[in-house]
Amino acid sequence: MMYQTNMLVFASETSCDETSICLMEDNKIIEHVIFSQEIHNNHGGVVPELASRAHLEKIQEITNKIFKRPNIDPKKIDVFTSTCGPGLIGSLLVGSTFTKSLSIGFNKPFFPVNHLEGHLLSTSFNNSIVYPHLVLLLTGGHTQIYLMHDEEKIELLGESVDDAIGEAFDKTAKLIGLGYPGGAQIEELAKYGDENYFKLPKPLLNDPTFNFSFSGIKTHINLLTKKNKIDDIFRKNISSSFQKTITEIIISKIEKVLEFLNTKNISLKSTSIVGGVANNFYIKRNLENLFEKKNIELYYPIKEMMSDNAAMIAWACIKNYSKKNADIFFKPNPRLKITL
User: Fold this and answer.
1) pTM of the prediction?
2) Residues 85 and 160 in one domain
């Protein structure tokens, strides 16, 4: 797939609790702002109504600031694009409605983008991908494995049947008295704990599918918090044991996928890890070791495209844009799936 050239794109991303906008021309980021909402820290998780309100306030503020910069002429924007799903419906409505309004005001087309596709294509921004290509998507809302036969044929192989991996990190953090978001805090504490101290369950480990399940681990940790004193030693050991268990589940599922592809005579050329949880050094190191042993090239997006961000939405638009797919009437869908 050749990307659309000589096109200036305005993109917004408001699927959850990050308010982000981006101006991108070809494969050059002109401006990129990511605002992480701190209001949810007091609640131990994302509150949808508060997220929507924060998006409404912030997206106008950061857009106005960028449009007032001397190097930016909004009239030169060729297309407006926004995340239209999946995500929180209220948050999706704020970003898409705001961006659609801009497209109408400047008389330019609006192009809807799937948040998941934004993540999957993000690695191609800074890498020349060789296909077939395996993508492991690790975010607060999704844990999925995709096989990209090429950029126009994407196949979902497995996903979480309950909690996403990022959600599991955050819920575990809350159970042991840590703040939100909890992923980075657990990763830090895990450095000082005994990863073999607690034996945690590994749901669906022997299941023949490539699906994940993390809610059972959370339930087990909840029971442990009732049987043990929640002090620094407990937090360090449970964080380390949890992180190791989660990683072993991921490794096991990836190995199963690789065996399956081998039986189908699909020679995997490369793989990538995308999404905010892909920043976890322990998970990255273990996956890097696995793919190195298998002699499979491993890619990552640029750091600012790892978490929820508008740059990956702009890039997905540039990669996929055609006037026939511009749709100002596209309705945001909180359960939008990839249909390529």
Assistant:
1) 0.94
2) no
